[in-house]
Design brief:
single chain; 776 residues; alpha+beta; 6-stranded mixed beta sheet; 22 strands; elongated; Membrane_comp_ABC_pdt; FtsX-like permease family protein
């Protein structure tokens, strides 16, 4: 063993550059695999811990307006599958009446309400995940606003309406298992009972959350159907516990998914590099291997000699990668821990990465063993006859017509002759380009205004939400009357939303949200089919169609007001709002059954969207008025922040990979072609010529790889992004690429890195001379 270790040590010293580059590849693979699994473990632990500590409800029905308390109590008593229930009174405050540091929250998409601490379950927690307590004159602020606006303890939040004004000091930041996520459109502030009584006497509108815990084995769809059939108060959105869990985990899970995806790409690159290095090394040492076999060295010992070298590298990479994954994973877990806490299963973020690194190491070592064994099958005579290897390498013959562009001609000729040697570096360049562009294209897709089409509506300039109020129709009429007389507005469309019953794949009747409005004004891109036309067609969201088992052309029966309505499915679209389960049809909802009016509008050319939005907020004091860009940005704010971090990380890693593989490849190729280099010098080629020839070879390969990597990032990247968003209702994403960044800046950065690396890496050609070859 001591002899083997000495041989390995000498080999490491002889091939420092190659060994270092390979070690970095392996360390990065281990780091990202362990880091991604650490984020996954932290996410599962955090979300699970928050849900358990807050005792999150399994079903919430929100309601605005009066209700019969006795009827609700009777409903709970007569349904024995309900384990516990809670009615939460929430005082909704207009965003324009909430002030922080002199600015109102008018631009916020969120509905904001004041509550007191709950009893029984659905507790609001402080940053230590303990039940939050506030005193008179104090307020607990959602962690969402602490992050978005920088609110911290000791700051002052002011509420005012008319002559009434009250200042509340922020005493704690709160975590809300029900409304934590940016995807949840409501946020709860915690105040004392005394302050609630005072503020409610001057301002605000009451909203109620009817919350339920169910006995084990009970489906929320059963409760939802029974609740709606019994005519219980439902002037608001209904939310299941599974949807709350999905919203809480989506953005954090997306980070882990992307990191692990990058890690898998790196593992592929590492295995390719290992394969190439092992084959190149053993090819150079065929004579030595043949000699060892000839003097009686067992094949197993020779195999062990090579395997121990890579085992040391893999073991060192695993240890370093796992250790580095601790701060790396904690950095990317910061968001989920800030929103949800550390959780109750911290062992997950230690065990998951450990298992991942072990499996990664075993996989790489088994691949090394396979390659080594395959290369040791040759007989002694075959190994000693190096001319056989030379024949396999191929030769490049100079053209008989001479060399007009000699460096270019020779470089392309050698590339064509020995193209198999360049497959690995070509694939690494492709993967690196893909790795750089994937998160960058994802981020630009989410930031693109047309991403709104993945939220179930066509692209427009401004969105107005009027929802869940007693004078819903009157407020809608007032808004539309004003908009129709505004000469700066080009087009307006009103969508009204209500609920109907439909039978799911399990045969259970459940309520689905249906939108009624002119779908031709702001048209959607449909996955299949087209928008509904007339009163007999219905379009379904992707998740609804999947759950109901419907395709375009199928018949679907829904119940409304006790009557069966039969529609033909005209199309399937993508929607990541309202849990991804929506539909579009011309159903004539009774005014009392309309829960939300959503108005979309476009302004005329030359009109500032931002100024028009501010003007409408001043004049129209009902509902929420946001630009569509703000709507997308606020809804996906957490996701976009995390993707910005991943984008930067991926670019750095991709450029580092490109540099390392170029250095490693040039080191191997120049050593392998030392005879050819010496001969070129002897017939008159300068060092500069030879370096240019190497550069041309690398640049041609890289150019083709960048083109293919870009195509893959746009096509395969859309499939990967679709897989990530499919749980929310978008299965097919068309990447919305920023051309300047994707097609100019990224390729330029890659080419620049290779250019600098080639200049440095080809200096070795200066030491090769024909006299050395003659002496050999």
């Amino acid at each position: 063993m001591k002899l083997l270790l000495n041989l390995v040590r000498k080999d490491f010293k002889r091939n420092k550059v190659i060994t270092t580059a390979l070690a970095v590849f392996l360390i990065l693979s281990a780091l990202l695999m362990a880091g991604g699994l650490r984020v996954t473990g932290a996410m599962i632990s955090s979300v699970k811990g928050l849900t358990e500590m807050a005792v999150s409800p399994e079903y919430i029905q929100m309601h605005k307006g009066t209700y019969a308390e006795e009827a609700l109590d009777h409903f709970v008593e007569t349904h024995d599958y309900i384990k516990d229930s809670l009615t939460v009174k929430m005082l909704d405050i207009r965003n324009a009446d909430l002030i922080y540091q002199g600015e109102t929250l008018e631009k916020s998409l969120m509905d904001n309400g004041f509550v007191v601490q709950n009893n029984g379950f659905d507790f609001l927690l402080n940053m230590d995940n303990e039940i939050a307590v506030v005193q008179d004159g104090e307020i607990g602020v959602p962690v969402f606003y602490a992050q978005a606006l920088g609110i911290k303890t000791g700051d002052v939040i002011t509420v005012h309406e008319g002559d009434y004004r009250k200042e509340l000091t922020v005493s704690t930041i709160i975590r809300d298992a029900s409304m934590n996520s940016a995807l949840a459109s409501s946020k709860r502030f915690l105040i004392s009972q005394s302050d609630m009584a005072e503020i409610s006497s001057h301002m605000g509108e009451w909203e109620y959350c009817f919350e339920f815990l169910l006995k084990d084995g009970t489906s929320t769809s059963v409760l939802e159907k029974d609740y709606m059939d019994a005519g219980m108060p439902s002037n608001g959105v209904g939310i299941t516990g599974s949807l709350l869990m999905l919203m809480n985990t989506f953005s954090y899970g997306l980070v882990a998914f992307i990191i692990i995806a990058i890690s898998l790409l790196l593992i592929i690159i590492s295995v390719l590099c290992l394969s190439y290095i092992i084959r190149a090394t053993m090819s150079e040492e065929h004579a030595a291997i043949g000699a060892m076999k000839a003097i009686g060295f067992p094949v197993k010992s020779i195999e062990q000699l090579y395997l121990i070298k890579y085992s040391i590298l893999v073991l060192a990479a695993a240890v370093i990668g796992y250790s580095a994954a601790i701060p790396f994973g904690d950095f990317f877990s910061f968001s989920v821990i800030r929103y949800c806490g550390s959780g109750s299963g911290e062992w997950m973020k230690w065990v998951f990465p450990f298992i991942g690194v072990i499996l990664l190491s075993l996989m790489i070592l088994l691949e090394c063993r396979r390659i080594i064994r395959r290369n040791l099958k040759s007989t002694v005579v075959e190994l000693m006859r190096e001319e056989e290897q030379i024949k396999k390498q191929g030769h490049y013959s100079l053209p008989s017509r001479g060399l007009k562009y000699r460096n270019l001609t020779i470089a392309i000729g050698e590339l064509k002759c020995r193209w198999k040697e360049y497959v690995v570096i070509f694939l690494v360049f492709v993967f690196s380009s893909f790795l750089m562009l994937l998160p960058l294209n994802m981020k630009s897709t989410v930031e693109n205004p047309s991403f709104i089409t993945y939220m179930g509506v066509g692209q427009s300039d401004i969105r107005i939400d009027i929802q869940y109020t007693d004078n819903l129709t009157k407020q809608k009429d007032a808004v539309t009357s004003y908009l129709e007389n505004d000469s700066e507005i080009e087009k307006v469309v009103i969508y009204k939303n209500g609920y109907v019953q439909s039978q799911n794949g399990s045969g259970e009747w459940e309520y689905i949200r249906v939108e009624n409005g002119d779908e031709s004004v702001f048209p959607l891109e449909y996955l299949e089919g087209s928008a509904p036309v007339g009163s007999k067609e219905m379009a379904l969201s992707y998740l609804n169609a999947s759950e109901l088992g419907k395709k375009v052309g199928d018949s679907i029966t829904v119940k409304y007001k006790g009557a069966d309505l039969i529609f033909t499915v005209s199309g399937i679209y993508q929607d990541i709002t309202y849990g991804g389960k929506t539909a579009k049809a011309a159903i004539d909802f009774d005014e009392n059954d309309v829960q939300v009016y959503i108005i979309y509008l476009d302004v005329r050319n030359g009109v500032s969207i931002a100024k028009k939005t501010d003007e409408l907020r001043t004049i129209l004091t009902v509902g929420k008025i946001t630009t569509v860009n703000e709507f997308v940005a606020q809804t996906l704010s957490g996701i976009m922040d995390d993707m910005s971090l991943i984008e930067g990380t991926a670019i750095v890693i991709a450029l580092l990979l490109i540099m390392l593989i170029t250095v490693m490849f040039l080191q191997l190729v120049t050593a392998k072609e030392h005879s050819a280099i010496a001969i070129k010098k002897a017939i008159g080629f300068s060092n500069r010529d030879i370096r240019i020839q190497f550069g041309i070879r690398i640049f041609v390969i890289q150019f083709v790889a960048i083109v293919i990597g870009t195509i893959l990032a746009n096509s395969l990247g859309g499939v990967i992004f679709g897989l990530m968003l499919s749980s929310l209702g978008a299965s097919k994403i068309t990447m919305l690429v920023d051309p300047l960044t994707a097609y100019l800046l990224c390729p330029a950065a890659q080419l620049l890195v290779v250019f600098i690396t080639v200049i440095v890496g080809t200096k070795a050609v200066e030491k090769y001379h024909i006299r050395d070859q003659i002496m050999e």
